[in-house]
Inverse folding.
């Protein structure tokens, strides 16, 4: 065995020996273990260095982004800049499942692309209604096997019916400003932290009823226009633009710089909604969630906060009811102006 070590057969470095031979006291390096070609990729180049204007974070890239933003017709806000540098992942279609839910969505005119009907179902009037309403609206009716529909819907109880609803097409906050400038006086509604899509739908319906020119919702941690919101809006979501803001606080600053007064609803405000002096001016009405109200950053961007006077021990109203009351009062003041 000692002879084998002297011939180098036992001199392969192992563990943390730093490449030295296994012979005691030796200062010479032994034979290194080969990688079998597995480390070849580590020696390959990474390709040519991209131009400066394509490197994320490089000053040239930021200047190029700003130049592209300037060419989009004034959409140079922080929201537009962030949207240009961070592409959004396309959203998947939403499935409305269940016989009652599908029929109600079709009757409400929810925009849909396909109606899926499982085979082998017993006759039901709702199935016939769903087929008739979908055909009348130009929606494709697709007959599928029951196991296929089970896989599509997962654990949701579809009852043999599923309606595919494509993602809602949101406007940009700057598009709402263009509508406000064309009106006298303008009126927008912004929602801060409202997470119930039915509340959102109710707000959109009230905003359309009382002459608002658009609704703004945050992109994150807030409800979007789903089938439930569309149904609650009673079709108003098709007539009134709804915009998504990457950062609601910054969007409110942009609105204020464009001449709108930012009015927030807050339960602890000193001024009531019927004492709002700027009701006849261009206004963006900001409504918070029922639980926590306006967030700190959003409330700091408000020019004034107002409350809805209430009798009794009721502490708060949900966003849909509060929006309807406040918008009705603003509309009343404007009719009398």
């Amino acid at each position: 065995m000692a002879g084998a070590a002297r011939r180098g057969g036992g001199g392969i470095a192992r563990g943390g020996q730093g490449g030295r031979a296994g012979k005691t006291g030796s200062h010479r390096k032994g034979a290194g273990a080969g990688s079998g070609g597995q480390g070849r990729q580590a020696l390959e180049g990474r390709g040519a260095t991209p131009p400066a204007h394509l490197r994320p974070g490089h000053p040239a890239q930021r200047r190029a982004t700003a130049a592209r933003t300037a060419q989009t017709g004034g959409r140079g806000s922080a929201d537009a800049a962030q949207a240009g540098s961070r592409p959004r992942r396309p959203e998947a279609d939403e499935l409305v499942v269940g016989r009652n839910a599908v029929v109600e969505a079709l009757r409400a005119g929810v925009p849909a692309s396909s109606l899926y009907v499982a085979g082998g179902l017993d006759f039901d009037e709702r199935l016939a209604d769903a087929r008739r309403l979908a055909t009348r609206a130009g929606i494709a009716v697709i007959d599928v096997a029951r196991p296929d529909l089970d896989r599509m819907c997962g654990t949701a109880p579809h009852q043999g019916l599923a309606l595919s609803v494509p993602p809602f097409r949101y406007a940009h906050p700057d598009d709402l400003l263009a509508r406000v400038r064309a009106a006298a006086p303008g009126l927008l509604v912004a929602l801060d932290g409202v997470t119930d899509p039915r509340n959102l739908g109710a707000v959109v319906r009230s905003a359309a009823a009382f002459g608002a020119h658009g609704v703004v919702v945050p992109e994150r941690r807030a409800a979007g226009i789903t089938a439930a919101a569309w149904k609650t809006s009673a079709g108003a979501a098709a007539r009134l633009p709804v915009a998504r803001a990457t950062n609601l606080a910054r969007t409110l600053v942009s609105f204020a710089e464009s001449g709108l007064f930012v009015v927030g609803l807050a339960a602890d405000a000193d001024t009531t909604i019927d004492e709002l002096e700027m009701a006849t001016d261009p206004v963006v009405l900001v409504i918070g969630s029922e639980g926590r109200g306006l967030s700190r950053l959003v409330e700091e961007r408000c020019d004034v906060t107002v409350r809805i006077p209430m009798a009794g021990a009721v502490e708060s109203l949900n966003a849909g009811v509060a929006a309807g009351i406040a918008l009705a009062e603003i509309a009343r003041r404007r009719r009398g102006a």
Residues 16 and 316 are 68 Å apart (CA to CA). The two ends are 107 Å apart (CA to CA). DSSP finds twelve helices and eleven strands in the chain.
